[in-house]
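## retry 2 of 3
previous attempt timed out at serialization; input unchanged, resubmitting
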Amino acid sequence: MDSRPTRIAVAPPCVPVWGWPVAVRIEESGILVSRIHVRAEKVDAFSQWSDRFGIPFIMLSRDKASASRQRLDALHELAHVLLHRKVTQEYLNNRTTYKILEKHADQFASFMLLPERDFLDELYAPTLDGMLSLKERWGVSVSAMIMRCKSLDILDDLSAKRLWMITHGADGAKVNHLTVKWK
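## retry succeeded, writing output
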C-alpha cells in the first residue's frame, strides 16, 4: 500500500505530521472531523459516510487527550473512509475480515505518520534511545515507531516485543505518548 499520493495531498513532503494540523487538512479535503466524549474504553474513533449529506465524517474521542494518539486515530479513520467505503456489513461482521481492515487502516496511518525514507534517514538505531530521540520531532509514540519498524522489517518479532514491553510498564499501562494536548 503506497500512501505517498495521499500524504502529498494532506501534508507537506518530508515534514513530520507534528508540523501540520491533521484534522484541518482532512477537513479541507471535504471530510467532517469532530471530537466527542465517547465514554467507551475500547473506542478511540469511528468514521462513516453520511447517506443524507453524501460526505464522510470522522469522530474522534475527546477521552484520549494525547495529540499523538489523536493524529493516529484521525489518519486511521481516514484510511477507512478512503479504502473501505464499499465494505459491506457482512464483511465487517466477519472477525477475520474485520482484523484485515483494521490492519490496513493501521498501516496507512503508520505510513502517513512515518514515511519510510524520511523516518529511516533520521532513525540512527531501532532502539528505545533511537526512537525517544525522534519522538518529539515526529510527534508520534514510541509504540507507533516500533510498529513502523516492524512493518519495514527493521525489527523482528522478538525485538519488537521486547521494546513493546519496555514502553509499557509492568502493569501494561502505556507510558510512551507525548503529553501535548490536541489543538
